[in-house]
Amino acid sequence: MAGNDGRTDPERxxxxxxxxxxxxxxxxxxxKQALTVDAIVDSAIRVADTEGLDALSMRxxxxxxxxxxxxxxxxxxxxxxxxxxxxxxxxxESPSLAEVEGGWRKALERYAxxxxxxxxxxxxxxxxxxxxxxxxxxxxxxWDGVLHAVxxxxxxxxxxxTVVNLVNGYVRGATVQETDVEQDERRSGLSYQEWFERxxxxxxxxxxxxxxxxxxxxxxxxxxxxxxxxxxxDGGFEFGLQRVLDxxxxxxxERTAARDGGxxxxxEASSPAADPGSTTGxxxxxxxxxx
Length: 291
Description:
This protein is mainly α and about 290 residues long. It has twelve helices and no strands. Helix 2 crosses helix 5 (about 80-90) and helix 6 (about 105-120) runs antiparallel to helix 11 (about 235-260). The chain starts with 9 loop residues before the first helix and ends in a 22-residue tail after the last helix.
């Protein structure tokens, strides 16, 4: 049985995740109670949003619900199952891609910004994208929508999945970095600007800048003084996203040219430089480490 050791039973967790498609989840014995899995998940999300995932405990989830800690285990067998349900619940906040105008690129832009918005509201979410979680109905709908957005590009199924995982990997990396900055500010009580004003002069005295000419050039430009390293309040998220999408667009154009231009074009488009390669982020489906 899964307890608080981080392990979970895949079959039991999947049944819990898909409970609304199988009828309400209630205790197998005893009278019907007011407590529900959804109420437990919502309480857990509030704890994680406020204190972080490391601070999440069944006791902290139970207290605002006015129930005992042990009563939660009637509905959710342990913390690992609960976290899986929490992740799927917040993914219901993902924007729909069904009515996006402008083709696959605009759809992926909306998808990426939606994922970033979720990460900003729920800073505990990005690290979970690299762990072995199980797909619930909300995540399944998200995957179906984003894969549909790229299915008209002419890419095959493997390439479609690679493209989505590439975007997921970028979003995960960028949002983890953003949340790290915010957590550093909370822990230290110093804003980025305050921290830089304290540490910058000390570094200038200690670092022999003549030994590091390129760093010195960038340092003297003043970009380190600015939040987001000169990219503005989004920390360069949009800049990086557009460069990722530029690469995807070029690859799609190359694959289209290969189909239209015959064997020579196919060899050129299939060269290592054009190969999408491996990606970071959660992979789907089956075992499904995703993005």
